[in-house]
Amino acid sequence: MKKDLSKLTAIGWREWVSFPEWGVDNIKAKVDTGARTSSLHAGNLKYFEENGVQRVSFNLSPWQRSSKDKVRVSADVVGFKTVKSSSGCEEERPVVRTTVLVAGRELMAELTLTNRSKMGFRMLLGRAAMKKFMVIPGSSYMGGRPDAETRKKNREAGSLSTGKVE
C-alpha cells in the first residue's frame, strides 16, 4: 500500500519539539529511523500509585548536557520495555505516553525514560512516532527553531554543565 506523501510533514535529522502537557516548550530531538521507540532523558525517577494506576515522576532537563531549568513531571506508566542500546547493552525502561509537538503537528507518542546525559540529544524520536512525517536526512530544523535567545540558552547551558543527572 502506497502512502500519500502529500499528507506527510517534512522533518530533518534533528528537530526542536515540545511537550505541551508537561509545560516544556523546547527540547532538541534527534530523529532516528533506526530506533523503533522514542526515548527521553529523565533523572530521579520515583514510582508511585495514584487511584490504582502506576505512575512515575521524573526530572526532565530540556537543555543539552545540563540540569538547568529542569521540570518535575509525572505520567502514567503504560508498561516497561527492554531496550538494547547501539552498544549492545540491555536496559529495562518505563514507558510513558504524552503529546509531542513536532514541526507544528501534534502526535501521541510513547517514550521510554532513560539517562541520556552522555548523548548529544535529550530526546530520540523513533520511527513509531513518525507516521505523519517524511525525514529529509540532509536537513535540520525543518519544523522551525525557537527564538535566538532560547537557542543561546541551550548552547550556554550545555557549555557550563557537567551533564550530571539530577
Task: Characterise this structure.
The chain is mainly beta. It is built from 1 helix and 11 strands. The chain has one helix spanning 148-160, and strands spanning 9-11, 14-19, 24-32, 38-41, 43-50, 53-60, 71-84, 90-102, 105-114, 123-126, 133-135. Strands 2-3-10-4-9-8 form a 6-stranded mixed barrel. The longest helix has 13 residues, at 148-160. It is globular. The chain starts with 8 loop residues before the first strand and ends in a 6-residue tail after the last helix.
Write a short abstract of this structure:
The chain has 166 residues and is mainly β.
Largest sheet: 6 strands, mixed, barrel
Structural class: mainly beta
Strand order of the largest sheet: 2-3-10-4-9-8
State the shape. globular
Order of helices and strands: EEEEEEEEEEEH
CA radius of gyration? 16 Å
pLDDT below 50 for ≥5 consecutive residues: which ranges?
A: 160-166
**Alpha plus pi helix count:** 1
Proportion of residues in helical segments: under 10%
How widely separated are the two ends?
46 Å
What fraction of residues sit in β-strands?
Answer: over 45%
The total count of strands amounts to 11
Mean pLDDT across every amino acid position: 87
